[in-house]
Amino acid sequence: MSERLVVVGGDAAGLAAASQARRMRGADELEIVAFERGSFASYSACGIPYWVGGDVAERDDLIARTPEEHRARDIDLRMRTEVLELDIEGRAVRAKDLESGAESRLSYDKLVIATGARPIRPDLPGIDARGVHGVQTLDDGQELLDTLDRIEGKRAVVVGAGYIGVEMAEALINRGYEVTVVHRGSAPMSTLDPDMGALVATAMLGMGIEIVCEAEVVEIRADDAGRVRSVVTASAEYPADVVVLGIGVTPETTLARAAGLPLGEYGGLLTDLAMRVRGHDDIWAGGDCVEVLDLVSGRERHIALGTHANKHGQVIGTGIGGGYATFPGVVGTAVSKVCELEVARTGLGERAAADAGLQFVAVTIESTSRAGYYPGADPMTVKMLAERRTGRLLGVQIVGREGAAKRVDIAAVALTAGMTVDQMTALDLGYAPPFSPVWDPVLVAARKAAGAVRARG
Amino acid sequence: MSERLVVVGGDAAGLAAASQARRMRGADELEIVAFERGSFASYSACGIPYWVGGDVAERDDLIARTPEEHRARDIDLRMRTEVLELDIEGRAVRAKDLESGAESRLSYDKLVIATGARPIRPDLPGIDARGVHGVQTLDDGQELLDTLDRIEGKRAVVVGAGYIGVEMAEALINRGYEVTVVHRGSAPMSTLDPDMGALVATAMLGMGIEIVCEAEVVEIRADDAGRVRSVVTASAEYPADVVVLGIGVTPETTLARAAGLPLGEYGGLLTDLAMRVRGHDDIWAGGDCVEVLDLVSGRERHIALGTHANKHGQVIGTGIGGGYATFPGVVGTAVSKVCELEVARTGLGERAAADAGLQFVAVTIESTSRAGYYPGADPMTVKMLAERRTGRLLGVQIVGREGAAKRVDIAAVALTAGMTVDQMTALDLGYAPPFSPVWDPVLVAARKAAGAVRARG
After folding, report:
1. Residues of B in contact with A425 (CB under 8 A)
2. Which residues of A touch B406 (CB under 8 A)?
3. Which of B27-38 are b and which e, b meaning 16 or more Cβ less than 10 Å from the residue's Cβ?
4. Superkingdom of the source (chains A, B) (predicted)?
5. Residues of chain B above pLDDT 90, percent
6. Which of B74, B244, B336, B447 has the fewest CB atoms found within 10 Å of its own CB?
7. Rounded distance, CA B384 to CA B82, Å?
């Protein structure tokens, strides 16, 4: 007897789940219907800043698999179709074709919720002015590019200085805009500690990006035609022909909330380790709409990142396909290339460690990406946190140039394994002059951290 | 009461040990005398191929710290002074000043043996012809460059195709020589499995390096003046104006052997985890003259690598200084940049795994260094070995371009932690389009390996 799987959301998590389920169960035993309200499916949202900035030439380069390719593999992918309601009791969804306006109801045996995240749009006067853009979906990216093509002015304001905010600031300056970044924190990149974020600020200034710190936006002003004209903070007004919201994203769980499904502190769906929605054996959720366990702090977090979404989809599809897989959690690894810098972090920063009740030592070292005598050796700053007394690694932040970012993977694996910084000093990392000084920068940091743990006691 | 520490060998391990001991104990309580028979101390032997090839301009760029700098820190470093005998019973060494010929005897309270390694010189007719060079020490490198300056011919033969052999072949072709590499194996880079070594062979051929595989050198022919003329194998003769030996190195333990100290299967000194020579509480040994525990195979190996030598020196100096540190062993990580490729390996290859009595699955995947749509995404091949049944990671080999080599560190940490390939599939590695596809190549390999473990049972 054939079952029906309904997937709500047609990007990384949803369609990875559908694809994996299809690999394991043929169309004769599992019917798969997937709904996507946007115009695009299976794309790399992480690539949008590079497309806007011109590094990636074509929008379609970001699309991993077209709707037709999914349909050819017996996944009934219905584009521009918005799910309006999850009827958990009735085991059905209600959907609306956004082209025709027709509504329909479809029952399911198994349900996957992969509704993603949406950019945070602060409740400000003028937030809905034309020319104010979030950049979460490919549709968002296209709308922003349409605005850039249409407007004549060259003044851009980015609100917020998280990864997306900084990447978008760089993309816009590469397109010839005057860019001002307005943000609340004391340094850009709030996923870094402020001392490390300050290195990013220096690089942004070096590219000609204006940064306004510790500034709260209170209003967005528009002209009579409803087009954005400026961004207003408590103390200043910044003229703007276009505004990009880079404040971050929040789980898109409107449907899940209405259906009474369990949500966490950040508004994301809560699942078990097999990515099943807690208390619901036949409902899975994954990607940017869920909260994930942070293995270092022991708490749930919301992290919108394509690599997690793909892993979730793989786990979900394996479960639906009758196999066994889990997503054990994250350590909070993130890397970014911004303003000629490579920036990376994993684990906990000072604030998050303190919030988790951890006492720690924090050390910072300067080293180079290659042996000092080898051409192209670039400076690299590594900050490392270790738990007081146990010496357990808690987190690493790296800011440097070529070769800096992916070094954070060393720490990501060490965090997963629960290593101490003293154990890390003996790690057998790859060494050759074109790739590392004889002591890898991560080992230099580990040595200093181990010394600090001993000294602090 | 002051003690005397005698250090035999003035490169990475010996002088790192001396420096760390000095940091912990002042000159009033510890006298330090170090003997170095060569003309250089504290240099990066790993950098020699780049100096010969011209990437590093000056010989002195490779010197981390001059003899004068060591002396300024109360380390009595005696250059061009060869230790002739270790008198273990008498707790003294006998040394000869190579300039004056004067011999002396010096007692010690603590002894560090850091005599390094020497290039393997096969016992062949003609091996001592002028123009036949090993490249282990900075003196060796200088002699090779002197030969290159003197000779007019442009034909170079490299015997052996390990890391040094391939790096030297590249250095010589960059200097305008016609280079032939003659080696015994079926592919270059015997630290890689032959299927991965074949990728290196292709790149070498692409640079115009001639490779002769499965060829045993039987003779080196010289002209009447004693200058090298050709390299002869069982089936052919290769004209040569200069010959570089890249066969590998062997521990330089002549003194230790004569003194009856314990040596292992590869002729290296055997130590405990604190790097003390087994059975001798006041004698330490480290660097290229010792064997180290391979944590994956559980056996002792000989690995000549500056990063290990520095770690050994740190551990030894800490012990002599009255602290506590150990060198737990290696997982066999090595990275190299050869012929426009980045090459890396860690853990066991197929041969070593079988020799250790392990049954395993081996998988190979092709991926890219960045998201496929991001400019500069280069192909990368990852081979992964996992133990049958347990799924424990056994080894990884990577051949690619930019961004390939240091990815091996992910596997080096996972090996150290004893992770299974299934556990690795959930690793939270850094992802952003400029640095990785959404599934990092190492994760793609881990997924495939985990599947192979399940299938094989």
Report:
1. 311
2. 403, 406-407, 430, 435-436
3. eeebbbbbbbbb
4. Bacteria
5. 90
6. B74
7. 45
Question: Is A403 in contact with B406 (Cβ distance < 8 A)?
Answer: yes
| 8 Å CB contact between B409 and B333 | yes
- Test the B interface: residue of A343, A346, A373 with most B CBs within 10 Å: A373
Q: Which residues of B touch A410 (CB under 8 A)?
A: 409-410, 413
Q: How many CB pairs under 8 A join A and B?
A: 196
Residue of chain B whose Cα is closest to the Cα of A58: B373
DSSP E strands, B174-216: 178-182, 210-212
Contact B282, B110 (CB under 8 A): yes
Distances (CA, A) of A117 to A6, A7, A262, B158: 19, 16, 16, 58
Picking from A344, A249, A8, the residue whose alpha carbon sits closest to that of residue B430 is A344
Residues of A in contact with B293 (CB under 8 A): none
Q: Do the first three CATH levels of B121-247 and B341-456 match, i.e. the same topology?
A: no
> Does position A12 have pLDDT exceeding 70, yes or no?
yes
Sorting pLDDT into bands at 50, 70 and 90, what band is B358? very high
Q: Which of B403, B357, B387 is nearest to B454 (CA)?
A: B387
In the predicted model, is pLDDT for residue A1 greater than 80?
no
Q: Do B310 and A428 touch (CB under 8 A)?
A: no
Q: Which residue in the set B423, B429, B432 is minimally distant from A46, CB to CB?
A: B432
Tabulate helix, strand, coil % of chain B (nearest 5). Answer: 30, 30, 40
Answer whether A440's CB lies under 8 Å from A429's CB. yes
Mean pLDDT, residues B160-173 taken together: 92
Strand duo B210-212 + B217-222: pairing: unpaired
The residues spanned by each domain of chain B are 3-118+250-320, 121-247, 341-456
Residues on chain A touching B434 (C-beta within 8 angstroms)? 50, 337
Nearest CA distance, B296 vs chain A (angstrom): 12
Out of A305, A426, A435, name the one closest to residue B431 (CB).
Answer: A305
Shortest Cα distance, chain A CAs vs residue B98, angstroms: 30
- Whether pLDDT at B1 is above 70: no
Residues of chain A in contact with residue B371, where contact means CB-CB under 8 angstroms, are 44, 46-47
**CATH classification for the domain delimited by B341-456, as one of 3.30.390.30, 3.40.50.1000, 3.40.47.10, 1.10.150.130:** 3.30.390.30
For B282-314, the pLDDT digits (tens) are 999 999 999 999 999 999 999 999 999 999 999
How distant is the Cα of B406 from the closest Cα of chain A, in angstroms? 6
Binary contact (A409, B429; C-beta < 8 A):
yes
SS3 of B77, please?
Answer: strand
Q: Domain A334-452 classified CATH 3.50.50.60?
A: yes
Taking the domain B3-118+250-320, which CATH number applies?
3.50.50.60
Fold of B121-247: FAD/NAD(P)-binding domain (3.50.50)
Residue of A nearest to B423 (CA): A328
B397-430 tens-digit pLDDT:
999 999 999 999 999 999 999 999 999 999 999 9
CA distance A434 to chain B (A): 7
pLDDT score recorded for residue A229: 97
Residue of chain B whose Cα is closest to the Cα of A406: B430
Q: What 3-state DSSP class applies to A259?
A: coil
Q: Using pLDDT thresholds of 50, 70 and 90, give the confidence band for residue A362.
A: very high
The band of B340, judged by pLDDT with boundaries at 50, 70 and 90, is confident
Report residue A172 as tokens: 């816009």
| CA A311/CA B426 separation, integer angstroms | 8
Would the CB atoms of B428 and A333 count as touching at under 8 Å?
Answer: yes
**Pairwise CB contact (< 8 Å): A433 & B409:** no
